[in-house]
Amino acid sequence: MKLSELTELIAPQAETRPASKAGRFTNWIGFWTVIGLALAGVGLVQAVWLPVSVLPGVYPGINLTNVMLIGLAGMLFVLLTVWTMGRLVGREAPDYYFGTRVIHPPLGFAFSWTFLIGGGLFIGFLASMFARLILPDLANLLGNVLGIYDLQVFAAALNNPQVMVYIGSGLIFTAFILSILSPRAIRSIIGWGAGISIAGWLVILGQFASVPQNRFSEMFDRIFGAGSHSLHLNLAFQLGMKAQGETLPEMIAIGFIIGLSGFFALGLPVWMSGELRTDRRNIVPAGLLALIVAGFLGVAAVALVERTISWQFLAAESFLRLKGITGEGGVVLPMPVSTPGGGSSTGVLRGIIMPWLPFYAAVVQPNPFVLFFLTVIWVMMFVLVVQVYMISLSRILKAWADDRLMPEWVGLVHARQHSPLFALLLVTMIALLVVIDAAQANWIGNHYNFALFVAFGLLLPVLAMIKNPYHFLAEGEDRPSRGWVCFLGGTTLLILIAAISLPYVFQVNILPVDGQSAVLLAIVFVSGLIWFIGRRLYLKQRGIDLMAFFKKLPEKSQ
C-alpha cells in the first residue's frame, strides 16, 4: 500500500469531505431528557452560590429572595428566546446559525466564538472553584460539625496549588469521560443525576423548614461554643460591615447577574437541538417545566435561609470570608471584639467561617448520614454541570467544522459513540487552561465574568432572530407568531444590554466588573474575528470559498 493511500484511510480529504461522514448524531434527547439536561446543567450549585455566599457580604441587608425573583423574571424572557431559537433552527448551535446566516458571517462567528470561549472558561472556573474552595470546605464542614479531626487535616492538605490542579483536572477529565459515552448511557447518567440532585435539594429544604425561627444562633453556639455566633457578628461590624440601601437599578443589575450566572444553563439543551427525538416545539414547554422546578428550589432555599438565619449573620459570614478570614486553625482576632457578656475578646475566633448553604444546613441538623449523603450529591452535581456544559459547547465546534471554520477532524463524530470526540477534547483543553491559571496568578479567575460573556454572546443572535425569525423555516412549517417572537427578542435584548451596562454603571462587584474584565471579553471577541479572517485566507489558497458555506441552510433534526 502506498503512503498516500494509507494517509487517505486515516484522514480522508480533510478539507473537501463533509465532516459527518465518519458518524452522525442520533436523536436521543426526548422531552424528559431535555428537562434532565437543563436541571443537571444548573445543578443549583452555582444558582445559590452568589445569593447566599457572596451577595450578603457585598450588600449587607439586601433582600435575597427579591433579588432571586428579579433574576428569574429576567431569565424567563432570556430562556424563552433561547428555546425559541432552538425551535426555529432545529439544529445544534442555533445562535451561531442565526448570527452567521441572517446578519453577517464574520460577526456571527465572533459572537459565537465569544460564547464558546466564555463557556469553556466557566467550566475551568467551576473546576478550579471545586478544587480550591468547595472540596476543602466540604471536608472542613464535616470535620468541624461532626468533630472528625482527620477531615480537618485533609481539608488543610487540599490548600496546595499542585493538589488543586490535580483535583480540578480530575473533575474535568471525569466529565470528559462521561461525555464520550453512548447517548443511551449519557441519558441514564443525566436522568438519574438530575433526580438524585432534586432529592438532595428537597432534603435541604426539609432541614430548614423544620427549624424554628431565631434559633440558629443557639445551634451555632452548640457546635462551636457559647458566644461564637456573637463573636462573628461583632467582628464583622467592627471591620466595617454596615447595611446599605440599594436603588432599584442596582437591584435589577444584581438580579440579572444572578439570573444569568445561576439559571442560564436551563437553556443549554438548545445547543443540542440537532439530536432531539421529540418535536422541536416541545423545547419550550420542557424548558419552562425545568425553569419552574429550578426556580422553586432556588427561591425556596434562599427564602428559608433568610427565615432561619438573620441577615446580620449571613452578611457577617460572607463579609469576613471575602476579607480572607476563614476561622480555620484558630485564627487570632485582629482587634478586641465585643462578647455577649459585655466584655471583649482578643483570643481565637471560634467556629469556621463558611458562608455556604450546605454549611448552614449542617448547623441546623448535624446528622452524619444526611451530611455525607448531601456531600456526595454536591460533588456529583459539579460533575454533571461540567458534563452538560462540555456536551453543549462541543456542538458549537461541530457546527463550525461543518462550515469549514474548523478543520474537519474537529467535527468528526464517532461512528458508535455518536460524540464529537475532538470537539469535546478542545473544550476540555480550554477548561484546563483556567485550572492551571487558577493555581498560579489566577488572572483569568480574578477578571472573568460569566454573565458578561453570556449576555454579550447572545446580543447578535437575538437581533438576528428579531430581524428574520423564519429564515430557517420552510413554507408550510409551523411557526410562532412574528409579533410574539419580536416581543420576546426585543425584551431579551433590553435585558442583555442592562446586564452588560448596569453593573459597570453601579459597580456591582458580586462578579468581577472592571476594565480588565472588559479587556478579557474584548480580547476573546477580536481573536474570533482574527480566526475567521485567517481561516478564510487559508481556505482561499486551497481553492475553497469559505463564504459559500454560509449561503446554505442547516438541515433540521425533524
TrEMBL record:
Keyword terms: Cell membrane, Membrane, Transmembrane, Transmembrane helix
Gene Ontology cellular-component annotations: plasma membrane
Keyword Ribosomal protein part of the UniProt annotation: no
Chief location of this protein within or outside the cell: membrane
Keyword Transmembrane helix appears in the UniProt entry: yes
Pfam families the UniProt entry points to: AA_permease_2
Superkingdom as given in the UniProt entry: Bacteria
Recorded topology in the membrane: Multi-pass membrane protein
Transmembrane segments: 29-52, 64-86, 106-126, 163-182, 189-209, 251-271, 283-305, 369-391, 421-441, 447-464, 484-506, 518-538
One example GO MF annotation: transmembrane transporter activity
Subcellular location: Cell membrane
InterPro entries, alphabetized: AA/rel_permease1, APC_superfamily
Protein name: APC family permease
Organism: Bellilinea caldifistulae
Classification lineage: Bacteria, Bacillati, Chloroflexota, Anaerolineae, Anaerolineales
